[in-house]
Amino acid sequence: MVERATQPEGSQVAVEVWSDLGCPWCYVGHHRLRTAMAQRPDADRFDIRMRAFELNPNAPQEPEPVETAFIRTHGGTTAHFLRAERQIQALAHGEGLEFSLDRLSASTFDLHRVVQYAGDQGRGFEFFSDLQDGYFAGTLNPYDSDTLAGVAESAGLDGQRVREILAGDDYAERVRADRTEGLELGANGVPFVVLNRRVAAPGAQKVAGYGQLLEQAAAGPVPSERVP
């Protein structure tokens, strides 16, 4: 549940996005959300904040082919994996997005820790988007520390700081707290978007759907009430 609150006209709108790097629906949803925001004349009012949500907290640390991870998690065969992947691939291609079937899968906990750092520097959404775009395009391995540091530097972040984070446990509690808070707000999976703690959007909405949510969140004061 999300608590409604009043929204002063013209003020900033906090857009919290619970997501996981390897989630294909998050990949599609992020692009739709960005498109919906870009269509608004007041796009600069929306402050996107990435929130961590591991879909599989028990995923192995060592990267493996995404097919292997899919079959272990969902069961079935290579044919089942390819059918599911090609469906989302066709949808992504239809929206102008690259989507490689040759990807790796592993625990995303450390990636979320680095995204927390990026968020503290005001680069969370940009860094996450660059990382996810490259991952689904099949052009980078996000589980490689040098690659991760390079993407961070391209986003204006400190690559050495990224290496220090990966070598320690900084931001670990924040990553765990994000997932717990998302569950408390009603997230059963990701993407899960909450705008100004007034309206929530589970799943990858259409561009028009995100547009309606942005309009609702940007509106003036409304009566206090609870919404799912």
From TrEMBL:
Molecular function (Gene Ontology), one example: oxidoreductase activity
The organism of origin for this protein: Streptomyces armeniacus
Protein name: DsbA family oxidoreductase
Domain DSBA-like thioredoxin: 15-209
Listed CDD domains: DsbA_FrnE
Superkingdom of this protein's organism: Bacteria
TM segment ranges: none
PANTHER family attached to this UniProt entry: GLUTATHIONE S-TRANSFERASE KAPPA, THIOREDOXIN SUPERFAMILY PROTEIN
